[in-house]
Amino acid sequence: MAEEELHRVPPPLESVVWRSSGGDLDDGPRRRRESMVNKLISTVYSGPTIGDIESALSLSFTGGAADQLPADAMDNNYSSGAGVSTAMSVLSPELNSSKVLTSKMENKYTLKMKTCGNGGLAEDGYKWRKYGQKSIKNSPNPRSYYRCTNPRCNAKKQVERATDEADTLLVTYEGLHLHYTHSHFLPQHHQQQQPPAAPAAAGEISSTTTSSKKPKLQPRGGPAAPIAIAPIIINDEDDDDDTPAAGGDLDLQSSSFLLHGGGSSWQHAAAAAPRRDDGLMMVGVFPQQEAEGYDGFVDHHHHHGRRQLNNSNGGLLEDVVPLLVRRPSSSSSSSSPPPSSVSWHNPYIDMAILSNIF
DNA sequence: CGGATTTGACCAGCGC
DNA sequence: GCGCTGGTCAAATCCG
C-alpha cells in the first residue's frame, strides 16, 4: 500500500534541548522557571501530563516570558544549529477550535505534522494496529483508524492528510496510553549500545525499523535497533533515588526539545524535530480540549514509586511529547546542573510521533 | 502459521 | 422516520 511507504523513522535530532531565554533573566523569573523545571523533573517518567506542561509553562512563560525566548525560537522554523531546524506551528483557529475534531472524548488532541519529502513518518513510540479506514466527506484523503496494540490500552488515533496541505498529516490521538512507549521496554543494554553518533543511530533505526511494505516500530522478530523514544524523562533534584527509568539511562544524542509558551490559554508543547530533507517534522501539538476527568490519574506503570505530577488536565505527557529527554547517563542526580539551563551536550534522543500512516 | 492489514458491512449519532 | 456520515467490526487477505 502506498500509504505505508511513507513510514519511516524519526530523523536525528540536534543537540540543544532546552532553550533558556538568554541567560539574563531576573532572579524571579529564573527561580520560577527553575521551580517549574524541577517540578517536571523526576528520575523516571511517571506520566506528567498536558496539565503539567501547561501549568509549568504558565509559570515560566507567561507574562511575556515567551518574548524572552530567542528570536529564532519564536520562529516557526526555530533553528538550533547548522542544517537543523525545528518547527512549531499553530493549527489554524478553525481547526484548533474545531468542533469536528473536538470530541466528547477527553484527552483527544490533534497533531499537525508535516512530512519533509521522504514521504516518511516518524514513530511515536507506540505500536498501533490499523482497524479501519474510511473516506471522509469533502476530503479526498481517507482517514485511517488505529488502535494501540497494548491490550490494556484504549488509546486510538486517526490519521489523515490535510486537504489543503498535501505534505501535512493530521493525527488525532484519543485516549491515554496506560503504558510506556514501546521503546521503553527495550532491554537497557540495547539502548546503551546506542552509537554515539545520533544521525547514524537514527539512520540505523530507519533502516531496521522500516520495511518496504509494512514498516513498524518494532518489526516482528524482535526489537531492531535500540530506539530511545521517550516521554520526557525528568530528574528531580530532590529525588535521590535516581534510578534508571524503564528505558535506562540514555545519553541524549543530538536531541532537540522545546517547550514553547503559547500566547493563548493553551500552551503548546511541541517536540521539535529537526528538519531533514527526507525527514518528517512535527510542527505542533494541539489539544482538542482540556480533558476533565483524569484528576488523580496515575499510571501505575509509570510512577515507580515516584510522585505523580499533578494531572489536572489529563493526557499523558508522552502522548503529547513522546520524547525521551534525559540527561547524559554519566551525570548523577546530585551533580546534574539545574535543568533550567538545560543544554545537554551529546544527548541522545529519538523522537517519534507517527507510525503506520498511509 | 501467526499477526497485521484491508475492506465491505454494520451500527450509532445527528440533522432534516 | 429516513438518510447521511463517521466509527467500528470482522472475515478475507497479505506478509514475514
UniProtKB/TrEMBL annotation:
Name of the protein this chain belongs to: WRKY domain-containing protein
Compartment annotation: Nucleus
Species for this entry: Panicum miliaceum (Proso millet)
UniProt domain WRKY: residue ranges: 117-182
Keywords: DNA-binding, Nucleus, Transcription, Transcription regulation
Lineage: Eukaryota, Viridiplantae, Streptophyta, Embryophyta, Tracheophyta
Cross-referenced Pfam families: WRKY
GO MF terms, alphabetically ordered: DNA-binding transcription factor activity; sequence-specific DNA binding
UniProt entry tagged with the keyword DNA-binding: yes
